[in-house]
Design brief:
This protein has about 625 residues and is of the alpha/beta class. The chain is about 40% helix and about 15% strand. The protein contains 21 helices and 18 strands.
Length: about 625
């Protein structure tokens, strides 16, 4: 889209980068240039910094530049955006601790140059502390570059809906949406502090330069509102439209709802590809409420799609082309592989059945040799009360089963119960509790695949090292993680691999697990397998994005839900539900049925439910029309 047409919709400069790492490198490079320029001028570089999962990549890149390129931070002064209230600086949830672990402890910023709002002050001292924070920023010469994230409510810092343009550093109550989104970090919404201290909108806008970072599909909607919507206090990020040097950095999923990506034909001339044509026809069908085969030439012309219909002469051949393209994506049991070796990678011990439980059953019934490799233990997603329940089972079982020294067993159980009783919310579990929670998840995963017709011994539990922090925040993926995944590939030597392409997982585990699979496939010595990407826990592939659509009967849908139910520790109230309040099984039912209902509205047969997949071959997306039915089962030559 041309710059002029883009500007009609986008009221802030937007840079869409290939991925999270590209954003991190770009923004860290800008910070490094600023730091060096200010050092050359003999003065400090003043940075406004943010917390959360998005800027971690920036901080890691800055640490690398410090260690490998000698980037000197001795002339850097830092002011952080915010802090929870009440919050002790040493708490695992504290932004003081976050900044220490993710940046300050690894570079040479003088401690006297690091400023973070205090969350542990008496109520009577908070107002003076906020005024003092503003004074320190002024005395430092103002902020040169401010890093921001964006919340689901559109907040920047903790400037919740209703924050005014003139607001300054202050204490405020957190919005319900913000507390719900933070619940995973605090192991329950009830544990999220009710208040925070944050820089105000006016304070942020006084920075000379602003970089807002957003990644993931779950940010796409609010990004569009911030970038294209009217300025309004209900979405504090819209005030950035008034800043002369603000830039929004997005990965493609976060940019997906921008007009330039969602409906580019509304703002510019198009280079029509088959994928874009299908997307536009589906959009038009939904917009007009007509099935695809009922769309008329005038419908296209009245909705800015005259250039598209003109390419085909009239609506009829275009309608037929798109209708047939959608039909070709549908693969029932008779059109799915038989007798193949398959390897399913599941980031957590339930993503396989949540996202592809229907297909798993069909693949088992077709006689395929299916191995499911669970990449992480998922142990931090088990509540302590689940462990206590299993301890009680062990104690009661010891009365009817000969377990040897019952007194020794009782002493061990008692010790674990004491450890749990002393644990605060969010504390890292003792090693034995982490292992017990891992075993609970493994047992549930084995039971779930058995319910779908797979032998329990087809489960592999990889327990990748990057996940083993005992905390919500994980280590970066390393060669050790990729080596483990490569080992499973070499053992199974599959013709088809399934992996999670669901990148909206709030804490990035799905994205990191996909990174290990992609790295392992690059090293794999065998014939490159077909790669099928599934979604479901956090998002679903759209009908247009999907390469393959697998229909499910009502009975198959019930079987899938029953497999999800085997994960009892995640039932009713999962510790990490994300922004969607529904249980995972409810999301699955709604999404799978929603996909089928949409296809029916487009004029296709009425299926009960539908799972969606994207298929890749040698790293290239393969459209359904390119895949003969027989080749789905065969590895590429």
């Amino acid at each position: 889209m041309s710059a002029s047409n883009s500007a009609r919709r986008e009221r802030i400069p937007v840079r869409v980068m290939p991925d999270h790492d590209s954003i991190a490198a770009e923004v860290a490079g800008r910070i490094a240039a600023l730091v060096r320029d200010r050092a050359g001028e003999g003065r400090a570089a003043v940075l406004g910094l943010a917390t959360g999962s998005t800027p971690v990549g920036v901080y890691r890149e800055l640490i690398r530049m410090h260690r490998e390129e000698g980037l000197d931070f001795s002339n850097v002064v830092v002011f952080n955006l915010d802090e929870y209230v009440p919050m002790q600086p040493g708490s695992i949830h504290s932004y003081h601790r976050y900044m220490g672990e993710n940046l300050f402890a690894h570079v040479n910023i003088p401690s006297s140059h690091c400023h973070i709002p205090r969350g542990d002050l008496p109520d009577a001292d908070v107002e003076a502390h906020c005024l003092d924070y503003e004074r320190r920023i002024r005395e430092a010469g103002g902020i040169d570059l401010q890093i921001l994230g964006i919340g689901r409510s559109g907040h920047i810092g903790f400037n919740e809906p209703g924050s005014g343009r003139r607001s300054r550093t202050r204490r405020l109550y957190l919005d319900t949406v913000t507390r719900a989104d933070a619940a995973a970090d605090f192991f329950g919404e009830d544990n999220v502090p009710p208040q925070a201290i944050t820089m105000g909108v006016a304070t942020i806008l006084e920075a000379r330069e602003i970089a807002l970072l957003a990644t993931g599909e779950h940010k796409a909607g609010i990004v569009r509102r911030a970038v294209e919507g009217e300025i309004h206090p209900d979405v504090a990020a819209t005030f950035l439209q008034q800043h002369p040097a603000a830039t929004v950095y997005l990965d493609p999923p976060a940019a997906a709802d921008l007009t330039r990506n969602r409906t580019p034909w509304l703002v510019d001339d198009m280079e029509w590809t088959p994928h874009r044509e299908t997307e536009a026809v589906i959009w038009l069908s939904r917009r007009t409420g007509k099935p695809i085969l009922h769309l008329a030439t005038d419908d296209y012309r009245e909705h800015h799609l005259g250039s598209l219909v003109s390419r085909h002469g009239s609506a009829e051949p275009l309608n037929g082309q798109v209708f047939n393209a959608l039909i070709s994506k549908i693969r029932g049991k008779s059109r799915l592989p038989r007798g193949q070796k398959m390897l399913v990678f599941s980031p957590h011990p339930d993503d396989d059945v949540i996202s592809m439980g229907g297909l798993l059953r069909k693949l088992a019934e077709n006689g395929n040799d299916v191995t499911v490799a669970y990449q992480t233990s998922g142990n931090i997603a088990v509540f302590d009360h689940e462990v206590r329940r299993y301890l009680d089972v062990m104690r009661r079982a010891a009365k009817v089963i000969d377990v040897g020294d019952r007194e020794a067993l009782e002493a061990v159980l008692k010790s674990i119960e004491v450890d749990l009783s002393h644990k605060m919310s969010g504390d890292v579990d003792p090693a034995v509790v982490q292992d017990l929670k891992r075993i609970i998840r493994e047992s549930e995963a084995s039971a779930a695949i058995e319910s779908l017709g797979l032998p329990a011994d087809r489960a592999r539990f990889l327990n990748l090292p990057f996940y083993q922090t005992g905390k919500v925040r994980k280590h970066p993926v390393t060669e050790a993680d990729v080596d483990i995944v490569t080992g499973v590939l070499e053992e199974v030597r599959p013709s088809m691999v399934f992996a999670a392409g669901d990148l909206s997982d709030p804490h990035g585990t799905h994205r990191m697990c996909l990174e290990t699979v992609e790295g392992a496939l690059e090293r794999y010595s065998g014939e490159p397998p077909w790669l099928w990407l599934y979604r479901g826990a956090w998002q679903e592939w759209s009908v247009n994005e999907a390469t393959v659509l697998v229909p499910l009967s009502e009975g198959e849908m019930r079987g899938k839900v029953q497999a999800i139910f085997r994960h009892e520790s995640q039932k009713d109230s999962a510790p990490f539900p994300g922004p969607d309040e529904r249980e995972f099984w409810q999301r699955v039912v709604d999404r799978n049925r929603g996909t089928a209902d949409l296809l029916h509205a487009l004029g296709l047969p009425a299926y009960r439910a539908m799972e969606a997949y994207v298929t890749l071959r040698d790293g290239r997306r393969v459209e359904a029309r390119e895949i003969p039915t027989s080749s789905l089962a065969d590895p590429p030559a």
